Amino acid sequence: MSNHLKKSNPCTIHPPGPYTHVVRYNNMIFLSGQVGFKPDGSIDKDAESQAMQVFRNIEACLASEGATLDDLIKLTIIAVGSESKAGAAKARDHFLKDRYPACTFIVVPELYLPEYLVEVEAIAALP
Length: 127
Hints:
By secondary structure, the chain is of the alpha+beta class.
């Protein structure tokens, strides 16, 4: 492994499955897709609440590398159905306001597990 490559899992969010939450390569930070797990492993049933938790998880992942939401350069948001898209957009707008990075918004009929209504992956860059 390159000494410029660092993999980590912040202890402030729910542990991942067989993957790493955060991979940093030099000044680039890549976040695995985040779903709405609270630190205790529970997940709310509505998309907006899940998306709010997703963005809290993203904040925690970024903070673990000394970054903030201002350092985001790309988001990929996946929402189950148009009603979930609306909730995800509200959460995105709440956290990012007028600081939007590049973004791809994908609406799908169902994710791999039916309780997951929103998933967001992110890329950030530090100066």
